[in-house]
Amino acid sequence: KSLANQQLSLPHGPLNGAGERAIVSKQLEAKGGTGGADPERGAYSIKADFEQAIELTGYGRFHYILLAICGLVSTSEEMDVISMSFILPSAQCDLDLNTQSKGWLNSIIFIGMMFGAYVWGSVADSLGRKKVLIVISIMNAFCIVASSFSQTYEVFMVFRFLNGVALGGSGPVIWPYFAEFQPKSKRGSMLSFMAAFWTIGNLLVAGLAWLIIPTGIGITTPAFTYNSWRIFLLVCSIPSFIVAALLLYLPESPKFLLSQGKIDEALAIFRGIYVTNTGKSKDQYPVKELLIDEKLREELEAVTKPIKNKYKRMLYDILDNSKQVFMSPILKFTIISITINFTFHIGYYGLMMWFPELFNRFDEFTRAHPGVEDASVCQVTDYVVGMGSHSQTGVCSATIPSTVFMESLITVAAALPANIVAVLGMDRLGRKFFLVFSTMAAGACSASMYFVTNQHQNLAVSAVFSGVISMGNASLDCLITEVFPTNLR
Q: What transmembrane ranges does the database entry give (predicted)?
């Protein structure tokens, strides 16, 4: 058996058999670890590095709880981003939106995320992942609630920007946090599971939008309006409040603690994970001392520089880590990662955010031209902007037909089977295989949008795009999380 399999089987029996001790000792020595008797505890004592220590905690209840909570963080993040795609057609009359202002509303959350990603990501590398995740979850929830009460386009834009600042920290922090608890043998498949929660977020948003927005519930007065799309937005804030509370029950990342020189705290967390996974006493966890490898030693040397004030330390870390990202040998990975992310998300969000609006425009064109079976995306858009609801003479309508919600639901549901394929194949076929296949297939779908001539073709292309791009999203999160050292993640 592989080392990983043998280690994962150890928690099922007490570590007091001579055969087991011999196996562990030989295999740890082969990988740089050591083992021996612990006279104080009367148990077998192992010195192990981080990867060996996390393997020996077993795999079980703790990791499934971690997946559920971190997955909910990912779900709430995606809900908040994609919710705008359903708000645009619904709020166009309330906020007096045209095509250009809709584009800005779609964009402003990402402008906020750009600022938030750098600031929160840097703070998380200095102060810890857990604290930052709790703060940004609370900030995110309150910004969504505030935006639902906004009565003008300008105020709505401000709160969506602040919402983006909070969301910008969620993605960059939750992935390293989750990955740093995973043993190497499980990391790819579990990160793919995490990516599947994005799809769940998309499904929840589409389903909630379908249930709430067409009902017309809410109140409308000359001075104040709180109608169905605002209530939908309010409901979308609930997962962020729940996440902030649940994160209190999770520990800090042991990898982060090791990189900060807090070895005893990291070892205590390993023992806690072992107890949760196996139900045994923490004294039976075989690792009594953590070995520091060369990469981790370099990180420890960086954080032991003589800076007394913790805020000066944090500022120094942020500036120093930023500099390291653009220095050899990390520079190559930074440039490649930036390029891949930039091009990938032009396609992912560039289309996913517009699909409900595009479905709505096709529906409007079809109702206005009952005898016309074929029309391209360009023809549909020309009609809606020139003579339809987006024209200067057109009558504004915030009513969205149920077919639009159904098509949106089908599109995001297409990502579910793709996520299952990614989970099963990520550790077997590799991250790069899925990333290359996904981006090539998604590119082909994007190009084929030009040849779409009716609603059904538009739905088919959108669904295929949603499926293949979700696999790429999972592989991208795995790949980028793994190539950067702990202090730069």
A: 103-120, 132-149, 155-178, 190-213, 229-250, 333-355, 408-426, 433-453
- CB of 70 within 8 A of CB of 182? no
What's 37's DSSP letter?
E
Q: For the chain, how long is the longest CA-to-CA vector?
A: 88
Q: How far apart are CA 38 and CA 32, in angstroms?
A: 19
Q: Give which of 325, 419, 353, 299 is closest to 117, Cα–Cα.
A: 325
Distance from C-alpha of 342 to C-alpha of 329, rounded to nearest angstrom = 21
Residue 219 sits at φ, ψ, to 5 deg, of -125, 145
Distance CA 360, CA 402 (A): 10
Which pairing describes strands 43-48 and 287-290: parallel, antiparallel, or unpaired?
A: parallel
Give the three-class secondary structure for 262.
coil
Quote the crossing angle between the two packed helices 310-325 and 330-352, to the nearest 10°.
90
Residue 307 near residue 66, CB atoms below 8 Å: no
C-beta separation of 140 from 121 below 8 A: no
pLDDT in tens, 439-489: 999 999 889 888 888 878 888 888 899 888 888 887 887 787 778 876 677
Distances in Å between the Cα of 238 and the Cα atoms of 80, 243, 350, 351 are 10, 9, 26, 26
Residues 394 and 398: their CA atoms lie apart, in Å, by 12
Q: How far is 315 from 326, CA to CA, in rounded Å?
A: 17
Q: 166-223: per-residue pLDDT in tens?
A: 888 887 788 888 888 888 878 777 877 787 787 788 888 888 988 898 887 888 888 8
What angle, 0 to 180 degrees and rounded to 10, lies between the N-to-C axes of helices 153-179 and 455-483?
50
Domain ranges within the chain, ordered by starting residue: 43-320, 327-385+397-488
Question: Contact 470/418 with Cβ under 8 angstroms?
Answer: yes
The fold adopted by the segment(s) 43-320 is: Growth Hormone; Chain: A; (1.20.1250)
Per-residue tokens: 231: 């209530």
Instruction: Determine how many CB atoms are found less than 10 A away from the CB of residue 399.
Output: 12
The per-residue DSSP string of 265-301 comes to HHHHHHHHHHHHHH---GGG-SEEEEPP-HHHHHHHH
Pairing of strands 34-38, 43-48: antiparallel
**22-26 contacts: CB < 8 A, separation 24 or more?**
24/286
Q: Which SS3 state, helix, strand or coil, does residue 334 take? A: helix
Q: How many CB atoms lie within 10 A of CB 330?
A: 17
DSSP for residue 139: H
Q: At 36, which helix (H) or strand (E)? A: strand 34-38
| Token pair 């200067």 in the structure block, residue | 392
**pTM of the entire predicted model:** 0.71
Cα 53 to Cα 399: distance, rounded to the nearest angstrom:
57
